Amino acid sequence: MNPLKKKPRTKSQTSIPSKPEWMKVRISFPKEADPVAIVRNQVAGKRLNTVCESASCPNLNHCWSRKTATYMLSGDICTRRCGYCDVAFGKPGALDPDEPLRVANSVLELELNHVVLTAVNRDDLADGGAGHFAETVRQIRKLRPNCVIEVLIPDFKAKQTSLDCLYESMPNIINHNIETVKELFSHVAPQKNYERSLFVLKNIAEQGFVTKSGIILGLGEKDEHIEACLKDLFHSGVRMLTIGQYLQPTPSHYPLQRYVTPEEFQLWKTVAVKIGFKHVSSGPLVRSSYHADEQIDSVEALNS
Length: 304
What we know:
The chain is α/β, with parallel strands linked by helices. The protein has helices spanning 35-45, 51-54, 60-65, 99-109, 130-143, 160-167, 185-188, 194-206, 223-235, 262-275, 296-303; strands at 49-50, 70-73, 77-78, 88-89, 114-119, 148-152, 173-175, 210-217, 240-245, 279-282. An eight-stranded mixed sheet has the order 1-2-5-6-7-8-9-10. It has a two-stranded parallel ribbon with strand order 3-4. Helix 5 (130-143) runs parallel beside helix 6.
């Protein structure tokens, strides 16, 4: 079997529960002005990757219809295999030195005011891919200087040299997702470390950057564990927070325990605001970069 392919389904695995109505996204627009096609052609034409496609995001059509996308740097093969993620796992190829400029040109042509850059884990690289992030930020700054740049980074194994390399490029927002509660970390993301992620977030905040993180629900977490995680994030300097629903990509991924209701997401938003978070996006369809362009006012407030 090709090790770069995503995990296949097997007959012995249980089926994924059907989505409730609140998880179904319906979009319609005229074919002659199809913004999804515009973004798709832009991405394909410049040989770029998006996390929207690689991670099988349920919001792809919705976000692309708004002419927004999250660029995924450093290829589409990840060096870590997390139970919740649909990005392919294996041995990545060499970095493409032209990718940063191609991303910047795409941002310019789409006239983006807010762009999100993420990447696969590149544990095969000495800096974890931090330099590639930094160069992409610099190229965007040259071509689209007023664009708000948000980077959604891996933990870089908490190497200070890698983090400093990223800091030097001066992105507007630095996001590192915690993903799940401490009690489930070893099961859901065994190659990651809860305390290491909190260290990275605290390091980012101490450098004065707007610091963001996110958690997904429906993995089997308990209410007290969610609240403890939110407090850990806040005490680590996180001020922008996303809370969304876990969607099991295939039966071979970590099993979905339940669909969290919209009312519960609203409750967790209330809890997060009481803890002290300045911007909270909480809902079944929320992802770390979902409607990120609408957070510009919050970024300006946090920087003031």
